[in-house]
Design a protein that fits this description.
The complex is a heterodimer. By secondary structure, chain A is an all-alpha fold. Chain A contains 19 helices and 4 strands. In chain A, about 60% of the residues are buried. The longest helix of chain B has about 45 residues. Classes of the chains: A mainly alpha, B mainly alpha.
């Protein structure tokens, strides 16, 4: 049970900071006409402080709440990813959320709460804590994706997400119940010990069913095929900044939670053999559907939604290896993927910004024709993000794929690695297609030039720097994410 | 200052980036000039300071290495001998006497050429572009010479190739310029391929790419054996042939004269083309370990020397003569390398940089005065009108011919002495013959341009160039006289200061040192006399056949020697030979593969792309938009997962 001396509040300081900022932003939002201005700056500085507080915990693995929360290097790396993603999302939201008026307080506070949920999820080593984090993050996202409540698409997205999300939550909860019933414990490590002892004999069916149900629940969150069908609709309906956040931070959080469960509870060699093939199958299905359907898209935002499904497929390859090198590859990939995807969605959001009308819901490829000449710097940045998503050196995307495929080859999953490479090649078609539009098609008309907000430019700049840095100097991060679990 | 040597290449590179990014609109011309020249001057000062600081190193330490960090992280691999090795490359630079000298020559000569370019290019539309390229080139060349490992050297190696392409084709709207640029790039690629293979092979044999440790291994008698050394040395030499314009890869250099003249001076005479000489002497231990490779280097150098020397004698365009003379002087350097006289080769490299730069800049000044005229038959008698240019070029020519006391004398003497004393009497004779040719072509150029009757067409009014161009001419002219005084041999009362500095870096260890046998002082005097006499003989012939008795020359050319002269005038038909043997068959192959590509490959690709999109459209049908359908697929997936787990 939780004893007072086990609380060690300082370890949860980043979460406390973010929650407090979220509350403050929410209270600010109840009145005041300058709310939008105050809210975004407050949210941004709160995120920055949380980043610093997280960095301060570095190198001192700590537990709190009687081991229910573990702030180890694994958690801290992911927490920084969430916070950076949150910060960049706030930067991209400066103008789009401004259109919400007084409700922008809600917007930012939900974003912050969502981040807290992710942090709880990845730091949790207790099934209930993990569930708590998952729900905090999910509920915030349901509302965020429907924040434009006057728009049909937005509401539709939110509702679909909510219904299917609730569906998947049932699976996770059911899985937790099974695991608790079979082992008598909610603590992941304890479950792992019980399983380890049982490994010699046959693992109980309840235990395995629990694992399967958990996998299904997490597979929903990371949008793995066939649990992905919500993603394209929701990604398209949500405000673009939030889409970027969902595609990066949420995916990272779900992978973090999944890896925690798999490697703390189900890491005994015998049981690894049961879940390895499941993920291999999911990986193949996800790569196939994500990449092939992306080929058939005309809408850039929807295209990137499918591309993010495809990337979940590459990540699942690394899960399927069931090795420590795979975990290292996943973490590296998640960081680099965060930068490039956020950047790409950021550019889309900035271009989709229509003067006075807020954000448009159509992001047709045709609008990108000639962008390379109208807005050379923005188009250049977009080109780099797309090349990185394709996996072309010297960008982060290349190194990420390299590490994952290497892990696959190293664990004798050569077939998966080959499939990954083939589908990367296929993905080049739809990524490069956007570049072709930007540089080789004439602009249809002299349209309204999108005006780029300063904050948005900074967000793009940070993403660009991250994408290039990790591509050129990958070793620093690679060393950092080694031997975590 | 030794710990700051990484700034030496970085300053020009940064300046190139600034000028390249902002030069088009934001920076005024004066600022561009200031930035470009200032960057090179800054590097020069830094390099000078660092070279002076080399004295502070302990006696037995040859150079100082500075690493900026990891480039290629350690990857475990197996060498050819089956040993475990780690491929690890750092962004490291190394300063020793050799790379220091190269850095000083590059930045020193480079600075004056930058200065000269201000006047020469002032009216050009692409002024900023020109200086961005020129700075990029300087930076890349410095990376090449300062790079501590073969990998970093390769970065510079490719970088200078790229800059050379950009600068030869600088006036890209002109078809010949663009084609010359392309030719240079393609021919260089052949050499680069050899170099790259050599680098990979070196890693395979030695398990490291660090130049000094490879050479250290060889000096101590280690290494992979003669056979591998021969292969590696020859591959490296292919690279050197490409970059340093040796037979048979020299064909790009004469065409490269299509670029702006200061570029010819800097890149295609003073610096880039010496990269091969530098690289071979840096890898001296490897070459010395293979007698076959040494012979090949010496023979190729000698052949190049004679071939291009003879072509230069009959050319009528100012810059073409200089281009072929560059090729032949590079031949001298390789001849020296081939007999193991690495120090003499490097010394000649330096003096050649001085006198060839002044000759090219002078030629540029002449062309500037005549509105771009290159044809020597339309010049003559210009000395009075262009006194600065004429004097500077005269100094350069005298130095090149090897008049005693001038820079070229000492370095050429060093080469011939090296050839004689190492017992390569045949190569020595070739060198002597080369000296005659040198005297002939360079003074033919001088006489036709500056002396005799004026054949300048009346529409031109020759005028001396602006101060920035004259300043560069004067300084380089002085250097082509005095630059050799740091290497005066002992017999003439000097102490061969340069040679002693370089000796440590260039020593090749147990495989036999520089200049095997000692030569008596009397013999040395005799050799010097022979070299000087050969140069003067060439000078006399030039005088006789251009100024004194031109009829005699004409009679010779139309008489018995007519077929030979025709052949030489047509540059031995080498370009035509390449055209017939390489270019045309290649184009034929290209056309054939294009047809195959369009008719077969393209259709397969189209079909697969079409099928992929079709599959996408089919799969898209599952995205109905109805939540109930989504939930159904979800349930299906869950069933599959549970079945797999519980199976």
């Amino acid at each position: 049970m939780i004893l007072p001396q086990d609380l060690s509040i300082h370890t949860i300081l980043p979460m406390v900071l973010l929650s407090a900022t979220g509350l403050a932003v929410l209270i600010l939002g109840t009145g005041w006409s300058r709310t939008a201005f105050m809210a975004r700056w407050l949210a941004l500085s709160g995120t920055l402080l949380a980043c610093l507080a997280t960095a301060a915990l570095w190198g001192r693995p700590a537990e709190s709440f009687a081991g229910a929360l573990v702030l180890d290097r694994f958690a801290l790396v992911l927490h920084l990813v969430f916070q950076i993603s949150c910060g960049i999302t706030i930067l991209f939201s400066f103008r789009s959320a401004g259109a919400l008026g007084r409700r922008s307080g809600e917007y930012y506070s939900l974003l912050l709460f969502c981040t807290v949920g992710m942090m709880v999820l990845t730091a949790g080593t207790n099934l209930l804590v993990i569930f708590l984090g998952l729900e905090v993050l999910s509920i915030s996202l349901y509302i965020l994706s429907g924040i434009h409540r006057e728009r049909r698409e937005s509401i539709e997205a939110a509702l679909k997400y909510f219904i299917l999300g609730a569906f998947s939550t049932c699976f996770i909860l059911y899985g937790i119940a099974f695991l608790y019933g079979a082992s008598g414990s909610l603590d992941l490590a304890e479950i792992g010990r019980i399983l380890g002892r049982a490994a010699a004999r046959e693992t109980s069916g309840f235990m395995r069913a629990g694992l399967g149900l958990m996998i299904v629940g997490f597979a929903f969150k990371i949008a793995a095929v066939p649990f992905h069908s919500w993603a394209p609709d929701v990604y398209q309906g949500a405000p673009t900044a939030i889409t970027g956040f969902m595609a990066t931070a949420t995916k990272a959080a779900a992978f973090g939670g999944l890896l925690r469960v798999l490697y703390l509870s189900f890491s005994a060699p015998a049981i690894r053999e049961t879940w390895g093939p499941v993920f291999a199958l999911l990986a193949v299905a996800t790569m196939v559907v994500g990449n092939l359907v992306a080929l058939a898209q005309d809408d850039v935002k929807r295209l990137l939604a499918y591309s993010s499904i495809a990337h979940a497929g590459y990540l699942l390859i690394a899960v399927a290896t069931a090795t420590e090198a795979g975990v290292q590859g996943i973490l590296f990939y998640l960081v680099s993927y965060t930068f490039m995807t956020l950047g790409a969605f950021g550019v889309i959001g900035l271009i989709g910004q229509k003067e006075g009308k807020g954000e448009s819901f159509s992001h047709n490829l045709a609008e990108y024709a000639g962008l390379g000449y109208r807005r050379p710097i923005l188009a250049g940045a977009m080109t780099l993000f797309l090349l990185s998503l394709t996996g072309i050196p010297p960008t982060a995307g290349f190194m990420g794929k390299f590490y994952i495929f290497r892990a696959a080859v190293g664990s004798h999953h050569v077939g998966l690695a080959i499939l990954g490479v083939i589908f990367s090649a296929i993905s080049a078609y739809y990524y490069l297609n956007i570049i072709v539009y930007m540089y080789m098609k004439r602009a249809p008309r002299e349209g309204m030039e999108p005006r780029i907000s300063f904050a948005g430019a900074i967000g793009i700049g940070i993403s660009l720097a991250g994408t290039l840095y990790l591509g050129l100097f990958p070793t620093g991060l690679w060393g950092l994410v080694g031997n975590l679990l | 200052m030794l710990n700051w040597i990484w700034l030496i290449p970085l300053i020009p590179l940064c300046s190139a980036a600034v000028i390249g990014l902002f030069g088009a609109r934001l920076l005024p011309k004066r600022l561009v000039s200031l930035l470009a020249c200032g960057a090179v001057l800054g590097s020069f000062v830094l390099a000078g300071g660092a070279v002076l600081d080399l004295r502070t190193l302990p006696e037995d330490v040859e150079g100082h290495r500075v690493s900026l960090g990891e480039w290629i992280p350690a990857i475990g691999v197996e060498t050819f001998q089956g040993e475990e090795a780690e491929l690890q490359v750092e962004w490291a630079f190394r300063l020793d006497a050799l790379s220091g000298l190269m850095a000083l020559v590059i930045t020193g000569v480079g600075f004056f050429i930058h200065l000269y370019s201000i006047g020469y290019m002032w009216k050009d539309r692409g002024y900023w572009r020109y200086f961005a390229y020129l700075n990029l080139f300087t930076g890349m060349m410095l990376v090449l010479v300062l790079g501590s490992s073969f990998a970093v050297m390769f970065v510079g190696w490719e970088g200078v190739g790229l800059c050379s392409y950009l600068l030869i084709g600088f006036w890209y709207e002109d078809r010949t310029c663009a084609q010359a640029g392309r030719k240079a790039f393609l021919v260089n690629r052949i050499g680069d391929a050899g170099f790259l293979l050599a680098v990979l092979g070196i890693f395979g044999c030695f398990g490291t790419l660090e130049i000094s440790s490879v050479m250290e291994t060889l000096k101590l008698g280690g290494g992979p054996g003669v056979w591998w050394c021969t292969v590696l040395a020859l591959l490296l030499f292919v690279g050197a042939c490409g970059k340093s314009a040796q037979v048979p890869l020299y064909v790009w250099l004469p065409d490269a004269m299509a670029g702006p003249t200061p570029v010819s001076a800097l890149i295609h005479a003073a610096t880039m083309v010496t990269a091969g000489v530098y690289m071979v002497s840096r890898c001296g231990a490897l070459f010395s370990a293979s007698p076959v490779a040494m012979t090949v280097v010496g023979v190729v150098g000698g052949v190049t020397l004679l071939l291009s020397g003879t072509v230069a004698v009959l050319q009528t365009e100012l810059k073409k003569v200089l281009a072929y003379s560059t090729v032949s002087q590079l031949g001298y350097m390789f001849l020296a390398l081939g007999v193991g006289a690495y120090g003499a080769a490097i010394f000649h490299l330096m003096t050649h940089a001085f006198f060839k730069a002044v000759l090219f800049l002078g030629a540029g000044s002449v062309m500037h005065a005549l509105g771009g005229e290159q044809e020597m038959r339309k010049m003559g008698g210009l000395f009075g009108k262009l006194p600065w240019t004429g004097t500077a070029m005269l100094l350069g020519s005298l130095s090149m011919v090897g008049i005693p006391g001038m820079a070229g004398f000492f370095s050429k003497d060093g080469i011939l002495l090296g050839a004689w004393s190492s017992g390569h009497k045949g190569i020595w004779l070739v060198g002597l013959l080369g000296a005659v040719l040198t005297g002939m072509y360079i003074f033919r150029l001088m006489f036709l341009t500056f002396f005799g009757e004026s054949r300048v067409s009346s529409e031109h009014h020759p005028h001396e160039s602006p101060w920035s161009m004259r300043a560069a001419l004067v300084v380089l002219g002085v250097l082509s006289v005095a630059g050799g005084w740091i290497g005066i041999p002992a017999v003439l009362g000097g102490n061969d200061w340069l040679g002693k500095r370089l000796a440590g870096v260039l020593s090749v260890g147990g495989h036999g040192g520089e200049a095997g046998h000692h030569v008596s002082a009397g013999m040395e005097y005799l050799l010097m006399g022979a070299a000087t006499a050969a140069g003067l003989a060439g000078l006399y012939l030039a005088w006789r056949w251009t100024l004194s008795r031109p009829r005699e020359a004409a009679r010779l050319r139309s008489g018995a020697l007519a077929p030979v002269c025709r052949l030489v005038e047509e540059k031995y038909l080498v370009d035509e030979l390449y055209d017939a043997a390489v270019v045309r068959p290649y184009y034929g192959l290209c056309n054939a593969s294009e047809r195959f590509d369009v008719r077969v490959v393209n259709r397969i690709v189209d079909a697969s792309g079409w099928m992929g999109r079709l599959a996408g459209h089919v799969l898209k049908l599952f995205q109905t938009g109805y939540v109930r359908n989504y939930a159904l697929t979800f349930l299906f997936g869950a069933a599959v997962v549970l079945w797999l787990i519980l199976r």
